[in-house]
């Protein structure tokens, strides 16, 4: 999976947050413009073209309302939309300056606010475009503008005082808005980068699983022939009269034959998990029968284990027997068995359209570092090379099926691992009528 494929939805989601920040900034601009128009026109007696300025303010309000309505139907926003919104703001600002003194307007530094925000929010090409539009607007209002009509009482010194005061107010406003909004934008960018890092890690883990699967499949093919030969040889030995008369030797051969059978079963499951030979065992069953069979097989493999199984499924449903899910639950049970634990609990329940399988034990529980990095490869308390791969596979397989896996320590002693996955990944037909 390429970085571009990973990053585009995440960047678009961050753009949505940034558009909301622009909406907030635009509301502040609208309120500030209304207050400024009222103070300048009615308080200071400086004549302003109220109708054109009001139309610009109304356009900004309409843009904000339309943006909010549009965002309710979208979770992601493409970068060109963000660029277009910022260019619109610059054009609106340019029109307002053209109506209020042009280049002599003391609020001209607001252009700088737009360019700085663009440098933070936009790609380099978009930033340069916004800067070019701002500079073009600045040049335009240097030649085409409506002069401010100062009252006759405004002397040169008083007019200079008003311009200086307005300039200071503008610079202070620029500073406050930059600190507030750049801080929010930076937080959004950090969240986006963190999300991208998580997705890249998931892609790397999935690639690791694929390599492991290929290696396991290759090993399974290689082991198949010698295991079959060994099974035949052991069968021939069991039929030898001298060996058949020796009870101890016959018993040991039987145990060897069972061990070889177990190895062959493991090889078969590896191949089936890799998508090979699935037709040999895949078939229709029910959820209850699937779990009952799974429990019986695991108890046969671990006869010394004290496994308690509880079925809270309620009405049964028809499913396709999924060897991958079976191996996932086997891995959880094996992990609990190796804790070590004198007792292992397995429960299954249906929560709406979700299946929840919980494995508990009475072992020492998980170390905090394992819980903090649960599902990551090579995170294990068993102290052996390659530890933690079982839970790593469990987490990623369940995630592929649309579910999730959680783990925690039980109060007192022991651990709990729960997996949840949609029944639609297993069920045949309508969940409400299957069974």
Described by the principal axes of the CA atoms, the overall outline is rod-shaped
What is the first-to-last residue Cα distance?
A: 39 Å
Number of extended strands: 7
Percent range for β-strand residues = 5-15%
Overall tally of domains: 3
Query: Which segments are poorly predicted (pLDDT under 50) over 5 or more consecutive residues?
Result: 1-7, 277-281, 383-387
State the share of residues found in helices, binned by percent. 55-70%
Largest sheet: 5 strands, mixed
Provide an overview of this structure:
It contains 12 helices and 7 strands. It has helices at 3-43, 50-71, 79-99, 110-121, 124-143, 156-238, 241-245, 247-273, 287-301, 323-337, 368-372, 389-400, and strands at 284-286, 307-312, 318-320, 344-351, 354-361, 404-409, 415-422. It has 435 residues and is α+β, with helices and mostly antiparallel strands. The longest helix is centred in the middle third of the chain and has 83 residues, at 156-238. It has a 5-stranded mixed beta sheet, covered by helices on one side. The chain has a two-stranded antiparallel ribbon with strand order 1-3. The chain has 3 domains: 3-203, no CATH class; 208-278; 282-425, 2-Layer Sandwich (Heat Shock Protein 90).
Which features does this protein show?
alpha+beta, two-stranded antiparallel sheet, disordered N terminus, 3 domains, Heat Shock Protein 90, 435 residues
């Amino acid at each position: 999976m390429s970085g571009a494929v990973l990053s585009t939805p995440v960047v678009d989601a961050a753009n949505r947050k940034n558009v909301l920040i622009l909406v907030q900034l635009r509301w502040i601009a609208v309120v500030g413009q209304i207050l400024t128009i009222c103070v300048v026109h009615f308080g200071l007696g400086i004549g302003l073209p109220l109708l054109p300025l009001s139309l610009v303010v109304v356009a900004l309000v309409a843009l904000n309302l339309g943006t909010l309505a549009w965002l309710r139907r979208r979770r992601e926003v493409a970068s060109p939309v963000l660029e277009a919104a910022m260019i619109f703001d610059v054009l609106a600002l340019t029109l307002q300056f053209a109506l209020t003194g042009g280049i002599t307007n003391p609020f001209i530094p607001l252009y700088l606010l737009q360019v700085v925000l663009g440098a933070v929010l936009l790609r380099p090409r978009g930033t340069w475009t916004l800067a070019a539009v701002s500079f073009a607007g600045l040049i335009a209002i240097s030649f085409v503008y409506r002069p401010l009509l100062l009252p006759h009482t405004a002397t040169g010194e008083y007019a200079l005082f008003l311009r200086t005061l307005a300039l200071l107010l503008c610079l202070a406003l620029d500073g406050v808005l930059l600190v507030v909004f750049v801080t929010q934008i930076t937080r959004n960018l950090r969240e986006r980068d963190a999300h991208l890092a998580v997705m890249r890690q998931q892609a790397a883990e999935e690639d690791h699983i694929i390599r492991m699967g290929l290696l396991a499949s290759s090993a399974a093919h290689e082991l198949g022939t010698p295991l079959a030969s060994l099974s035949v040889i052991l069968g021939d030995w069991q039929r030898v009269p001298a060996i058949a008369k020796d009870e101890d030797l016959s018993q040991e051969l039987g145990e060897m034959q069972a061990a070889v059978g177990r190895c062959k079963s493991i090889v078969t499951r590896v191949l089936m998990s890799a998508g090979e030979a699935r037709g040999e065992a895949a078939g229709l069953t029910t959820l209850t029968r699937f779990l009952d069979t799974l429990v019986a097989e695991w108890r046969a493999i671990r006869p010394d284990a004290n496994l308690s199984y509880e079925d809270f499924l309620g009405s049964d449903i028809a499913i396709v027997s999924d060897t991958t899910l079976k191996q996932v639950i086997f891995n959880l049970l094996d992990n609990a068995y190796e804790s070590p634990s004198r007792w292992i609990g397995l429960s299954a329940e249906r929560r709406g359209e979700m299946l929840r399988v919980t494995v508990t034990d009475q072992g020492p529980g998980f170390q905090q570092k394992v819980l903090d990095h649960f599902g990551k490869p090579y995170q294990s308390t068993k102290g052996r090379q390659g530890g933690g791969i079982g839970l790593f596979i469990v987490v990623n397989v369940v995630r592929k099926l649309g579910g999730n896996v959680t783990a925690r320590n039980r109060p007192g002693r022991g651990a709990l691992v729960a997996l949840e996955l949609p029944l639609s990944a297993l069920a045949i037909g309508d969940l409400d009528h299957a069974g």
